[in-house]
Amino acid sequence: MSSYQYSKLVDADIRLLTLLPGQPDSNIKIQIHHAPLRAPPDRPRQQVTLDELRKKMPDGWEAQETVEGQYIFENDELNVTSWSLPDDSVPASLYSTPADETVFIPQYEALSYTWGNPENPQTVQVVSHDDPSIFWTQEIQYNLSGALKHLRYPDKPRTLWVDAVCINQADIPERNAQVPRMSDIYRLADRVVVWLGEEMSNSKLAVSTLDYLGAQIELTKQGGRLPSPGCDHQDWFRSLTEMPYEDDTWQAIADLVNRAWFGRLWVLQEIQLSNHKAVMQCGMNQISWQRFRRAMVCLESKRNLPQVVIFSKLPRLGVFCLPVEGVNFAILLLRVTHLDCSNPRDKVYGLLGLASPSLLARVQAQYAEPVESVYRDLFLAMTDQMQRLHFEFCSLRTSQARQLASWVPDFYGDLVELLFRGGRYASGMSCSHSTYVAPSALYVSGIRVGTVKSNKGVYPDDVTKRLAVLHDWKPDNLETGLYPTGESVMDAFATTLGQDQLRDRFPTSAVHPYLDEWKDKLNKLLVDSQDSGGHPDIGAYAYDLRFLTKQAFVTSNGGYFGLAHRDTAPGDIVCAVLGCSVLVILRPTTVGTFLLVGSCYLHGFSSAEAFLGPLPSPWIIQYKPDSFGAQAPYFFNKDTKEETQEDPRLGKLPPEWEPVEKERTRDDPMLFRWFRNRNNGYTMNSDPRMLPLALHERGVRLEDFQLF
């Protein structure tokens, strides 16, 4: 019996698998054929936009858009949500979602699953189209075999696209060509079917529980939650509402979300690109993807989850369940850092289906390329696309281990542990000014902020050692001293430990504490307990201090302190780099070049002070969510209560420039504003007053740094 031999794909063809009917215990039989896959033109939107609809709302009513693209209406006073408005003041034709009865050809279902352990492969029969008595054999992995047996109909064929069979995995050029097409393959599928694996004793309980919970809730594209119109439980969507589940139900949910599918990277784009018909299947139990994602987002928001759920994968499922519209590729890389893939190149290629056309034009799947080239080329492509430098992902330790240049992130590593939540406006609304010189040099422009004097130790993983480390970090003049910015040392130290994630900075947040609340907690932890000889429970502060793990407390000349990469050493320099939202630690070499150690937060330099000086009183910088939920900076006058996007330090915009309003897209960096030159029409996503020439005219002396 010979093995199946692939024929070459030509033009727009893909392969499709026909799963032939059979009984549960019979051999798996398939047929393989080619079919052209050409994306149809986009259909024009028939609804009015959300902004237009909101202008027409009757008094008391607010309009939102669900992640499925439906408009939903809420009335807080009546405590009701509805798919329609109570009167005909707004014609239903403006907001109704027309049924799409178009059948795309070829019609197929796309399977989303994990390959699993390569041991114990199974054999399927590939049946000839011309003579059903002739067949060849093909090996597939055990998990796929289980999926096909459960998906097979007893009495009719089923057409599927399955990557392990429909792509010749041994043909590298074909893989390179097919990877960019996977976005269309999953987007154009009649339905995406997620295979979670065989049924377990509590799978049915988990699926039925989540199905019912998902029916109570709607998700908006801005990340909000609302009660579903006509639902049984109007308050289940609220974070403070406790769910009436027994221990066995929580265990069933934890067991379901701990399955391998939720830990793999490739499946993310597969489900994000699916349509509203997508389903998840565990054994013979099914739940619609829409209800599952609503249930997950609801549970993740709960304040009092049992330990079995907190330590499951559930708290990290937002990347699957929340929409990625307006999310750029750098943020995607951060969100998937915990997801696994066997080939390090797939940390890039496994997400290309969610990349913007602009980035796709710059990045091509090339599996024969060394990993270091793939990561370097992606970094340069993102820099070119967004005009920003994502040094917050860099770590000298991991770059050297993978033989990367110090300025090239190791995207296969844990990016979250490198990230500083505070100080995301360190270079203001500036764009990058960098030049790459092959094979490994990158020139950037910026300012030296200071020189590191000491590294006072790293916040440990070991909970029992954390309090001692915090006492080592504590400044000697904590209770009486003044910080160089003019505030108290206690205020500066508390803000630093909270990574500037305080409600004073994020006034719309219900999660972050105010500075005074946070100081009281720290006083009890560091001062009161020491005075009384007590032994506070550091575990009670685990949530508030969770982002400190593996970060070091450093001091610099001038009396400043902050948090930095754990490998920061005395003599390293702190720099603010144009186009980089965080400060960075650079290590001088003996030949006048620099190594990028990592990013840092130095209190007093989180709001572009290195370039523009401190904000004049009574102005402060705050953040509030934009239409996509991203935190955007604005400036608040504490005396007049004025809010503006204009940085009061910059002065008037030059007459040849004007601000332009544009909605966030996947091509935009996290922080951006659009400006247009009236003379030539040129637009840019950064402030022209932060260009090198404009800064030079302000007396700012920029320095070029050669990074290796």
Automatic annotation (TrEMBL):
It comes from the Eukaryota. It holds the Pfam family HET. Residues 55-88, 613-650 form the WW domain. SMART domains: WW. PANTHER family: ANKYRIN REPEAT DOMAIN-CONTAINING PROTEIN 39 HOMOLOG-RELATED, HETEROKARYON INCOMPATIBILITY DOMAIN-CONTAINING PROTEIN. This is Heterokaryon incompatibility protein-domain-containing protein. It comes from Fusarium solani (Filamentous fungus).
